[in-house]
C-alpha cells in the first residue's frame, strides 16, 4: 500500500473525527491539515474534505486515484467532495497499516488512545503538535484583522517595517548550529523561562527575556535567534533599527511604537532587533531631535515589554558592542557573546555544513588550521567556491584539495577589501557587487548547516 493512500485516509479520518468530537479545537489538527481549512482567522465545522484540499494536505497531485479502489471511500464528481462511506472500516484499515502515525496526530490520538492496538497519548500528541499561533495562515489572518482598518498606506508602511517569519518557514533548528557552551547554557535558561512563565509571574520575577547578542558579523546571531523561534514554535518578528528612520522624521517614533504593537499582537513571539548599535550612535550624535525622540521611545518600549507579561522574547543584536552606552546595556538581562569560532568550532562547522557530501581525504582539523579568523558564513563561502570549481570540471565529488584551493581563493579575494584602487577597469568591481560575496554584515547563515 502506497504512503499516498495512507496520507489521504489519515486526512479523511482526521476531518471525520474532528467533526464528530466537538470538544476538539484547531490545535488538535496537524498543521498540514489545519492550514487547508483556515479561513478568515478560524476553522469552521463541519470540515468539508475535497479533492482540492486533500491534494494540498497530502501533497498528492491525484489524491482520489490513491484511494479510489478502497471500498469505504467515495467521491462526488460534481462537487469534488471526498468521504468515508464506512468510517469504522476505514479506521480498521488505517490502524492495521499505520497505527504508529496516531501518536503524531492529536485528533486521532484522542479518538484511539484507549485502544489496545494503539500506542498514543492525546495530551502528549497535542503538546508536540505545532500550535496554530505558529502557522503562516494564522499570522496573516491576525495581521489582516488588526491592521486592515488603518488607512491602507499607513498599514502597508507598518508591515514594511518588519520581516515576519512563521516557524515553518525558518528551516533551521538549534541542532543545526555549532554553539559555544555558554551560548547553549543561556539558551537553555531562556527556554526554561518560557516554559515556566506563569510561575515566574507568580513570584514577581518579570525582568527576564531580554537578550543581547554581541559579536562580529557572520558569527551566528541571526541564525540562532531564528532557530530558537523554530524550536519554540514562535513567530519571528525581525526589524533592522536603521530601517525604522522615516523620511518624515516625525513618523520615526511612531514607527518604533508600531513595531512593538506588531510583536504584542503576534505574541507569543520573538522580536529580533538587529543593528542595536544604531541606538548608541544616535544618542551620541548631533542627529535631528526627532530621531533622538525615536530612540528614547525605543528604550521606553523595551522597558514596557515583557516575556512574562506580554509573551514577547526580545533579542537585540549588534556587531559593535563597544558603541553601546549604559542606557542600552541595562535594558537587557542577559548578554550572549558570539565570538569568531576557534579551531575546534571551525572543524565542527565544516563537518556539519558538508554532512550531505562525500569528500575524498576530508580532514576538517587541517582545514580549521588554515582558516583562522574565518566565521561560519566565511566557511560556507569557501565550500560554495569549492563546489562551483568542481562543477566547472564536471565533477560532483569533492576532494580535500578543492577546499584548500578555495581557502586560498577566499583569502586572496578578501585581501581586495583593503585595496584603495585596482588597476584596470574600475567598473568591474561595481558591476560585480559585493566582492566579498558574504552579504555584508548579514549573519543569517553563519554557524549553521
Give an account of the 3D structure.
The protein is of the alpha/beta class and 449 residues long. The chain contains 23 helices and ten strands. The protein folds into three domains: 3-129, no CATH class; 136-337, P-loop containing nucleotide triphosphate hydrolases (Rossmann fold, 3-Layer(aba) Sandwich); 343-432, Helicase, Ruva Protein, domain 3 (Orthogonal Bundle). It is 50% helix and 9% strand. The strands form three sheets. Strands 3-5-6-7-4-8 form a six-stranded mixed beta sheet, with helices on both faces. A two-stranded antiparallel sheet has the order 1-2. Strands 9-10 form a two-stranded parallel sheet. Helix 1 packs across helix 3, helix 6 packs antiparallel against helix 7 (122-128) and helix 21 (376-392) crosses helix 22 (400-415). Mean pLDDT is 86; it is low at 421-446.
CATH topology assignment of the largest domain? Rossmann fold
Question: What summary fits the major beta sheet?
Answer: 6 strands, mixed
Task: Classify the secondary structure makeup into a structural class.
Answer: alpha/beta
* Tally of domains: 3
Number of strand segments: 10
Distance between the termini: 35 Å
Helix content: 40-55%
Care to give the gist of this entry?
This protein is α/β, with parallel strands linked by helices. About 6% of the residues have low confidence.
List keywords for this structure.
globular, Rossmann fold, 449 residues, Helicase, Ruva Protein, domain 3, alpha/beta, six-stranded mixed beta sheet
Write the layout of secondary structure elements.
Blueprint: H1 3-20, H2 31-37, H3 51-58, H4 63-67, E1 73-75, E2 82-84, H5 87-98, H6 106-112, H7 122-128, H8 136-147, H9 152-160, E3 163-165, H10 167-170, H11 181-195, H12 197-202, E4 210-214, H13 221-231, E5 236-240, H14 252-266, E6 269-274, H15 277-284, H16 289-303, H17 307-310, E7 312-318, H18 326-329, E8 334-337, H19 343-353, E9 359-360, H20 364-369, H21 376-392, E10 398-399, H22 400-415, H23 427-432
Amino acid at each position: 500500500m502506497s504512503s499516498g493512500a495512507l496520507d489521504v485516509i489519515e486526512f479523511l479520518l482526521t476531518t471525520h473525527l474532528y467533526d464528530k468530537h466537538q470538544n476538539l479545537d484547531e490545535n488538535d489538527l496537524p498543521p498540514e491539515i489545519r492550514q487547508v481549512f483556515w479561513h478568515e482567522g478560524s476553522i469552521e465545522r463541519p470540515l468539508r474534505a475535497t479533492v482540492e484540499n486533500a491534494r494540498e494536505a497530502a501533497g498528492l497531485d491525484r489524491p482520489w486515484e490513491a484511494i479510489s479502489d478502497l471500498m469505504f471511500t467515495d467521491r462526488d464528481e460534481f462537487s469534488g467532495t471526498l468521504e468515508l462511506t464506512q468510517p469504522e472500516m476505514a479506521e480498521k484499515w488505517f490502524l492495521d497499516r499505520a497505527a504508529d502515525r496516531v501518536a503524531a496526530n492529536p485528533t486521532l490520538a484522542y479518538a484511539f488512545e484507549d485502544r489496545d492496538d494503539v500506542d498514543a497519548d492525546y495530551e502528549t500528541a497535542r503538546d508536540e503538535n505545532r500550535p496554530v499561533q505558529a502557522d503562516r495562515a494564522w499570522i496573516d489572518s491576525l495581521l489582516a484583522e488588526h491592521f486592515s482598518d488603518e488607512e491602507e498606506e499607513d498599514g502597508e508602511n507598518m508591515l514594511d517595517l518588519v520581516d515576519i517569519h512563521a516557524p515553518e518557514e525558518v528551516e533551521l533548528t538549534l541542532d543545526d548550529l555549532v554553539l559555544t557552551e555558554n551560548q547553549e547554557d543561556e539558551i537553555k535558561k531562556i527556554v526554561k523561562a518560557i516554559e515556566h512563565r506563569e510561575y515566574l509571574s507568580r513570584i514577581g520575577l518579570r525582568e527576564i527575556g531580554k537578550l543581547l547578542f554581541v559579536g562580529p558579523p557572520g558569527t551566528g546571531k541571526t541564525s540562532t535567534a531564528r532557530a530558537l523561534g523554530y524550536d519554540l514554535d514562535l513567530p519571528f518578528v525581525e526589524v533592522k533599527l536603521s530601517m525604522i528612520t522615516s523620511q518624515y522624521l516625525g513618523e520615526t517614533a511612531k514607527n518604533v511604537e508600531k513595531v512593538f504593537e506588531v510583536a504584542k499582537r503576534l505574541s507569543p513571539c520573538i522580536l529580533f532587533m538587529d543593528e542595536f548599535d544604531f541606538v548608541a550612535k544616535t544618542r551620541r550624535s548631533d542627529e535631528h531631535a526627532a530621531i533622538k525622540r525615536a530612540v528614547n521611545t525605543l528604550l521606553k518600549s523595551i522597558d514596557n515589554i515583557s516575556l512574562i507579561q506580554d509573551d514577547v522574547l526580545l533579542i537585540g543584536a549588534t556587531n559593535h558592542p563597544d558603541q553601546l552606552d549604559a542606557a542600552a546595556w541595562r535594558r537587557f538581562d542577559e548578554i550572549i557573546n558570539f565570538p569568531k569560532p576557534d579551531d575546534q568550532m571551525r572543524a565542527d562547522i565544516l563537518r556539519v555544513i558538508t554532512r550531505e557530501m562525500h569528500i575524498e581525504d576530508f580532514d576538517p582539523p587541517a582545514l580549521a588550521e588554515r582558516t583562522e579568523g574565518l566565521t561560519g558564513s566565511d566557511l560556507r563561502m569557501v565550500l560554495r567556491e569549492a563546489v562551483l570549481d568542481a562543477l566547472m570540471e564536471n565533477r560532483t565529488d569533492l576532494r580535500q584539495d578543492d577546499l584548500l584551493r578555495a581557502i586560498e581563493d577566499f583569502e586572496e579575494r578578501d585581501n581586495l577589501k583593503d585595496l584603495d584602487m585596482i588597476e584596470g577597469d574600475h567598473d568591474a568591481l561595481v558591476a560585480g557587487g559585493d566582492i566579498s560575496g558574504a552579504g555584508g554584515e548579514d549573519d543569517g547563515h553563519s554557524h549553521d548547516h
